Amino acid sequence: VPGALAVYPEVLHEGPVPPDSGTRAWRETRSRYLSARDYVPYADAMRNLDAWDAKLEAFADYDEVVLWFEHDLFDQLLLIRHLDWFARQDLGRTALGLICIGEFPGFQPFHGLGQLNAEQLTSLLGTREPVSPEQSALGTRAWQAFTASDPTELDALVRRGDTRTLPFLAGALRRFLEEYPAVDTGLPRTERQILELLAAQTLTPERLFIMQA
Length: 213
Description:
By secondary structure, this protein is mainly alpha-helical. It contains nine helices and three strands; from the N terminus they run ααβαβαβααααα. It has a three-stranded mixed beta sheet with strand order 1-2-3, with helices on one face. Strand 1 (64-70), helix 3 and strand 2 (95-101) form a beta-alpha-beta unit. The protein is globular. The two termini are 32 Å apart.
């Protein structure tokens, strides 16, 4: 695959996520959270985020930027973050494309792009399509709802069913909303699943992680 590779492996489903992505204040907020959780020291988190944003900001050096994502929550949150960010830029001559898949021949179940080898990944390049104005607008609406202080905006977006231009988004956002405490038990979905599994049998942490994922 020709061109430069830029990664952005941010865990946006955890911690505070302000709407103004791409700014130093945004990176500082995220770095404080990541360091407080002992994921990575603050200085390293800032260095990573600075580098990732610098890669994105260099888009004008290229004729085309292709966003590669899969169907899961981790990727879909990054997708709307990037769509919102690019919607606020003057792209000039740079075309913005998208590859976003939820399946691949020969893989059942399909978990994600990490299952594919180099040849299989390369075969996806020809399937890319230009990001449409509708996808860009939906990315911005979804990002604003996701970063809002009140989760009812996000719930309303999913319930309205107007996310068809990004076909995996509704399912991913619905999974995110399931991590809010349930009204009957006070437990988010992940905690409930863990307790149900442990009530049925004794499991090692590794086995528990695999079974509840």
